């Protein structure tokens, strides 16, 4: 160990990552052009190179230092976890033939091969996708088995470093800090894969089919291999002259992963002893390069776990040179907070603490004065140095508020997107290093903004506050289910195994063009309404022809299930360029929830009532639930989420009343994000489930006894929220279930759920048409584990991404299967 080693200077102001999609979504366009066959990989590489260079210089222009690894090298073509898979050559067996690139390097994916892992090919499914911690970003789940190849096969990170440190255009050089998913987090996020077919043939010992990992195998068992490969990466980065590298270990902030924390801690100690202690960061004599760059380990998305020893002490006990902590979601480490007792952390005296005081996850301007006080308090921890950083990568926020022509000036002044956050970090670093006087103007301005926001009209609306304050437990109760079920059956007269859909019908390019023309002002309101009504009429006619039992209007008027509501509710604003990456090339524009929420006028009633006027069958009104609206928006930081959820719920409750007044007898309130907002710590689950379930009930319990309330859940494993699903008290719950072959039905039944259940009978993510037999099979399976009288038949999710051809065929088979099984009851 190099006791005397002084690490290269790490800038006092840095960010953990920056949006990579481009200010005008240049990367999205370029990547999709390659997929569509309109460009070559060379052209895509060139676009990406330009984007990286422009971004790095832009960040220097915003005040990050060009020479001291302040600028993160956080680019990715698709996903940072997939990047780690590519770097390691850890390719699942079904894609192994892709892992020999055009340049012949064994194990290395070409850029096309890389995208194939993300998107699948023919009958080879892509890597699974799942949510990245508690964000709306989705990563690809690596599949790691006992004999998955693992090595250092792709030097992209090294090339990207060099390309900016020695730019080909001879312009300004930027010494970046390459960012990689840390080895422990990589494995903890991986799913166990089976041994290869070849290995199975060679071994008679176990009989599991390829695809199933051998009993007891966990990806973390491959830690030594991954760490050995990372050691090679670090050597290569050092040889290229990289002074610093960033290894992201957010797994250290959650307790939802399967591995107990003492084992995680052990893995961290082992990994960083191999990487930080065994490799020397000090250059040798005669120009021999260091064996590795200085290492910054980050722990974003929450406080470091402390349930089995102190997470900060754990990292401080390793020989890494810097540690980044999230001080927005996480508490200031013990000894500093509140009581003022100075408690130093052993090991920290030789390290830089990167204090994540600027929120990387939300879009509000920071209260700089308060953050500076937090930073000043950190000196008591006894760190070798304190640098200022963001709590997480800025990946989760849009690029630049200045780019928003339509936002109200007042609201705009309260917001900080990525570029404004960089400026905040720079200001705080200056204030910390040179004293408050050096940034007096910025502090004063920030304080003024905080005050103007608190006092602005619309932020606190007394009538809204009075209404939420007056709520009582009776406001979230409906009549007993048996009574409801009887009244609803009398009103709706549905057959057993009723059929329905989840709401949306195909959003054809014609619909999207019509909407775009209307937004641009090329279509009048009347023309737009007429076009949408025509669409609704044909959707209703199709459903009647197919013989579905509960119809929908098809949601043609909705650009997005959250934005549609945000555009109409008071308290929300929407942006023009506020895109953030959701997964791969997919971007979303989350609305900004800035003030108390209320409903100035009905939101959906006209469309739904129009559909109902065209048929004698029941038409289901479609609403997005409060939790989902919050989950897919930037939420306010000046009111507890539960209180905001109640405000949204009351707006929806009024909508339900108006739908009923228009004669609608079935209302569905979608909550696909219920599982998504579940906190990263178990201790916080009860509190979350309490407010989320309450807000759903508040939205729906104003419904009459004879009104049938549906909900819909998807996108996740529901194990951890099974009890909550029952707590929603919906009359009918439709859930994604086809891929797991109805697994959720017995789980719900075991949890005591005894109301209507519509397990999805086919996956809407692919154009495949399910056969009648296949649907029959799944329906029979579901009817085995729960009273068949409770079972509904519907697809897994909305049909908006599908085409009409496969939708029509699939629904025809679905209805035929329902009729077939009905006849046997
Ligand atoms: N009602 C919505 C639709 O059908 C539900 C979408 C969702 O669950 N994500 O599109
Ligand atoms: Zn869904």
Tell me briefly what this model is.
The protein has 825 residues and is an alpha/beta fold. It contains 27 helices and 20 strands. The structure holds glutamine and zinc ion (ZN).
Explain this structure to me?
- By secondary structure, the protein is an alpha/beta fold.
- The chain is built from 27 helices and 20 strands.
- Helix 11 crosses helix 13 (418-434), helix 17 (509-519) runs antiparallel to helix 18 and helix 22 (641-661) packs parallel to helix 23 (685-700).
- The structure holds glutamine and zinc ion.
- Glutamine (GLN) is lined by residues 502-504, 555, 561, 622, 670, 672, 712, 714, 797-798, 800.
Low-pLDDT parts are 201-210, 335-342
Distance between the termini: 74 Å
Biggest beta sheet attributes: 7 strands, parallel
Shape: globular
The percent of residues in helical segments reads 25-40%
Mean pLDDT: 93
Strand % is 5-15%
Bound molecules: glutamine, zinc ion
- What order do the strands of the largest sheet run in, or round the barrel if closed? 1-5-7-8-9-10-11
Number of strands: 20
Q: Please state the CA-atom Rg, rounded to the nearest Å.
A: 28 Å
Class computed from helices, strands and strand pairing = alpha/beta
Q: Treating each run of at least 4 consecutive H or I residues as one helix, how many helices? A: 27
């Amino acid at each position: 160990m190099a006791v005397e080693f002084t690490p290269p200077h790490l800038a006092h102001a840095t960010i953990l990552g920056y949006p990579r999609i481009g200010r005008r979504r240049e990367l999205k366009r370029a990547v999709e052009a390659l997929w569509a066959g309109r460009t070559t990989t060379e052209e895509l590489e060139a676009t990406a190179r330009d984007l990286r260079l422009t971004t790095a210089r832009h960040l220097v222009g915003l005040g990050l230092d060009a020479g001291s690894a302040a600028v993160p090298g956080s680019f990715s073509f698709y996903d940072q976890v997939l990047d780690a898979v590519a770097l390691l050559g850890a390719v699942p067996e079904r894609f192994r033939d892709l892992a020999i690139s055009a340049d012949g390097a064994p194990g290395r994916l070409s850029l096309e091969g890389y995208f194939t892992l993300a998107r699948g090919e023919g009958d080879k499914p892509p890597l699974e996708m799942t949510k990245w911690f508690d964000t709306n970003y989705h990563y690809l789940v690596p599949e790691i088995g006992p004999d998955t190849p693992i090595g250092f096969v792709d030097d992209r990170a090294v090339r990207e470093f060099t390309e900016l440190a020695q730019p080909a255009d001879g312009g300004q050089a930027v010494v970046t800090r390459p960012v990689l998913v840390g080895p422990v987090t990589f494995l903890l996020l991986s799913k166990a894969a089976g041994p290869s077919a070849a290995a199975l043939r060679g071994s008679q010992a176990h009989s599991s089919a390829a695809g199933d990992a051998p009993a007891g195998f966990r990806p973390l068992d491959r830690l030594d291999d991954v760490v050995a490969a990372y050691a090679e990466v670090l050597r290569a980065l050092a040889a290229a002259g990289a002074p610093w590298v960033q290894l992201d270990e957010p797994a250290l902030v959650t307790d939802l992963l399967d591995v107990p924390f003492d084992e995680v801690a052990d893995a961290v100690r082992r990994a960083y002893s191999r990487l930080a202690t065994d490799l020397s960061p000090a250059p040798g004599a005669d120009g021999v390069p260091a064996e590795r760059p200085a290492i910054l380990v980050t722990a974003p998305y929450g406080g470091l776990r402390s349930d089995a020893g102190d997470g900060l002490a754990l990292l401080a006990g390793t020989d890494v040179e810097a540690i980044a902590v999230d001080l927005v979601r996480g508490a200031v480490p013990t000894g500093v907070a509140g009581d003022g007792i100075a408690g130093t952390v052993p090991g920290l005296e030789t390290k830089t603490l990167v204090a994540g005081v600027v929120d990387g996850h939300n879009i509000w301007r920071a209260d700089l004065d308060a953050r500076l006080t937090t930073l000043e308090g950190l000196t008591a921890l006894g760190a070798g140095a304190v640098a200022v950083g963001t709590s997480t990568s800025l990946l989760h926020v849009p690029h630049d508020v200045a780019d928003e022509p339509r936002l109200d000036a007042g609201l705009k002044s309260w917001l900080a997107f990525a570029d404004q956050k960089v400026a905040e970090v720079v200001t705080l670093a200056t204030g910390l290093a040179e004293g408050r006087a050096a940034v007096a103007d910025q502090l004063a301005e920030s304080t003024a903004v905080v005050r103007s926001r608190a006092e602005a009209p619309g932020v606190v609306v007394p009538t809204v506050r009075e209404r939420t304050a007056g709520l009582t437990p009776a406001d979230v109760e409906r009549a007993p289910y048996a009574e409801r079920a009887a009244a609803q059956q009398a009103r709706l007269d549905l057959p057993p195994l009723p059929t329905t859909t989840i709401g949306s019908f195909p959003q054809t390019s014609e619909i999207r063009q019509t909407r775009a023309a209307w937004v641009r002002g090329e279509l009048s309101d009347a023309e737009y309404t007429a076009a949408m009504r025509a669409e609704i009429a044909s959707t209703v006619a199709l459903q009647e022809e197919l013989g579905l039992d509960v119809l929908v209007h098809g949601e043609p008027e909705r650009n997005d299930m959250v934005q549609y509501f945000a555009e109409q509710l008071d308290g929300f604003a929407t942006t023009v360029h506020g895109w953030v990456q959701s997964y791969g090339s997919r971007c979303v524009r989350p609305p900004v929830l800035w003030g108390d929420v209320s409903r100035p006028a009905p939101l959906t009633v006209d469309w739904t009532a129009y559909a109902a006027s065209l048929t004698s069958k029941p038409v289901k009104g479609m609403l997005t639930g409060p939790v989902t609206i919050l989950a897919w928006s930037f939420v306010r930081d000046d009111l507890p989420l539960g209180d905001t959820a109640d405000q949204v719920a009351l707006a929806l409750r009024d909508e339900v009343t108006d739908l009923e007044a228009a004669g609608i007898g079935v209302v569905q309130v979608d909550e696909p994000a219920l599982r998504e907002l579940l906190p990263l710590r178990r201790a916080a689950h009860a509190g979350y489930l309490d407010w989320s379930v309450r807000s759903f009930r508040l939205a729906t319990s104003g419904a009459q006894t004879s009104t049938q309330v549906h909900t819909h859940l998807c996108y996740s494993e529901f194990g951890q929220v099974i009890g909550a699903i029952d707590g929603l008290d919906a009359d009918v719950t439709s859930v994604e279930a086809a891929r797991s072959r109805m697994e959720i039905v017995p789980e719900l039944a075991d949890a005591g759920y005894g109301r209507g259940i519509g397990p999805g009978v086919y996956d809407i993510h692919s154009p495949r048409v399910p056969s009648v037999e296949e649907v029959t099979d799944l329906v029979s399976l579901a009817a085995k584990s729960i009273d068949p009288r409770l079972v509904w038949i519907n697809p897994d999710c909305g049909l908006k991404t599908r085409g009409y051809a496969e939708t029509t065929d699939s629904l025809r088979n679905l209805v035929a299967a329902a009729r077939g099984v009905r006849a046997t009851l």
